[in-house]
Specification:
globular; three-stranded antiparallel β-sheet; single chain
Length: 327
């Protein structure tokens, strides 16, 4: 069963997908469903080897065509079919092959895959937003360890993303500029929170960071989405993305867990060119080498984050951490 249920308190959709209780949970390495098929055990990829692979999630939260809702909505509790797409992106056939350890060209290929999926999924009439993300590490709830990310073709703009886009739209109307462009300008002028940069992108821990090692990557140009990236942009984005992954993994000497999300222009709203600004946001749960940041009542229930570190200090730690090498 899968359906959308409206939360009138928060004014946002909740996806109810009961069949996901049956999804694969921490299988042994020799039964990983994301590895190439070798021997008698079938996997999601029937070939003996692969480069990058995209396929539909076997346990999707959203589906085309969607199943009919199993409950009837009311004037207060609206219900809609869970129309959309859920895809899995495999970064490498190597079960232990962290993307930070792979050649830069592999990251470039991944960005081209993201661009392709944004363009194709965005053409479907049911999809309003293409949400590209990665959950990395058991600390953020990962149940399959093989390096992979996910892509959701959502029938609505996800609430956290909508809030940021609405703020940028409001700032544009009041000040005549994209809010993301203004944030990047402030961070560049200050400089203390910059972690890495190149000709096309800047990585920094924002002034308002909620997590100690939260890194955002902004395009220097006002680029609304992955669709507008040219070959130079792709190479530069791959370079800084790869660099941040390596810095994370070298910071404490182990693969750094995080949630990564890509912020970009909605696909069906018919607007957003002037206030949507391509950026990538990382949310790592570690606050020190041996301490995790758990979300307590203030964060989870009230929505008020407490960062018990200074972004300027954490940015310097990451800036001083060399990229490269194996973790």
């Amino acid at each position: 069963m899968s359906e959308l249920r409206w939360n009138p308190l928060l004014k946002e959709w909740v996806i109810t997908a009961t069949h996901r209780q049956k999804r694969t949970f921490k299988p042994p390495e020799n039964y990983c469903p994301l590895c190439p098929t070798r021997g008698e055990y079938p996997t999601e990829v029937p070939d003996k080897n692969y480069d990058l692979v995209v396929f539909e999630n076997r346990f999707p939260s959203l589906k085309l065509p969607p199943p009919p809702p199993e409950v009837t909505g009311t004037s207060l509790y609206e219900v809609k079919p869970s129309a959309g797409v859920c895809e899995v992106v495999l970064y490498t056939p190597d079960h232990h092959g962290h993307l930070s350890q792979k050649p830069l060209q592999q990251v470039e290929k991944l960005i081209r895959v993201w661009q392709d999926r944004y363009l194709e999924l965005g053409q479907k009439k049911e999809i309003e937003y293409v949400f590209i993300f990665e959950n990395r590490g058991e600390e953020v709830g990962v149940t399959l360890h093989h390096p992979h990310g996910q892509i959701y073709g959502d029938p609505f703009i996800p609430p956290a993303i909508k809030k940021q886009l609405d703020a940028s739209s409001e700032h544009l109307n009041q000040n005549g500029e994209c809010l993301f462009c203004r944030i990047l300008k402030e961070e560049a002028e200050d400089g203390r929170r910059i972690v890495a940069s190149n000709d096309s992108f800047v990585a920094f821990i924002p002034f308002f960071a909620r997590y100690p090692y939260e890194v955002h990557i902004y395009s220097r140009q006002h680029i609304p989405s992955l669709a507008e990236l040219d070959e130079t942009n792709i190479k530069h984005l791959a370079g800084i993305y790869h660099q941040i992954l390596q810095k994370y993994d070298n910071l404490f000497g182990f693969p750094f867990p995080f949630i990564m999300s890509i912020m970009q222009k909605p696909t069906k709203s018919g607007k957003g060119e002037n206030y949507s600004h391509l950026n990538i946001q990382f949310y790592p749960p570690y606050r020190s080498k041996d301490k995790l940041k758990y979300l307590g009542g203030s964060e989870s229930a009230a929505g008020t984050f407490i960062n018990d570190t200074r972004p300027e200090e954490k940015a310097k730690e990451l800036r001083d951490t060399p990229p490269g090498g194996n973790s």
